[in-house]
Amino acid sequence: QVQLVESGGGPVQVGGSLRLSCAASAGAFSSYTMAWFRQAPGKEREFVARTSGSGGLTFYGDSVKGRFTMSRDNAKKTVYLQMNNLKLEDTAVYYCAAKLGYSGNYDDKYDNWGQGTQVTVSS
Fold this sequence. Notes:
The chain has strands at residues 4-7, 10-13, 18-24, 32-39, 46-51, 58-60, 68-73, 78-83, 92-100, 112-113, 117-122. It is an all-beta fold. A hairpin with a 6-residue loop joins strand 4 and strand 5 (46-51). It is globular, with a radius of gyration of 13 Å. The chain starts with a strand and ends with a strand.
């Protein structure tokens, strides 16, 4: 079991930036695929980004490509999500997730989740 704690959410204006962080308690953190998902009110949870254990491979959802950047620091057992050029439709609760031995975008495959951090984009 891995404990994940997100931080960095908050209010931001359209076009602004935020950086989310997710600190993990995993002993073998570099073995975990790490991902970000988000869920807006009344919508299903959506894949945002994921990165391999080494951080050498990173994939993004279509709606955030070119605007969001996911990275990880294995020494600090932390992943980040740099969000630029934020849009109203980026408003959601953002969740960090972790999984051993899986590389994919399906949220039901991830078995370790943080509590989420709210991002609210306004005009």
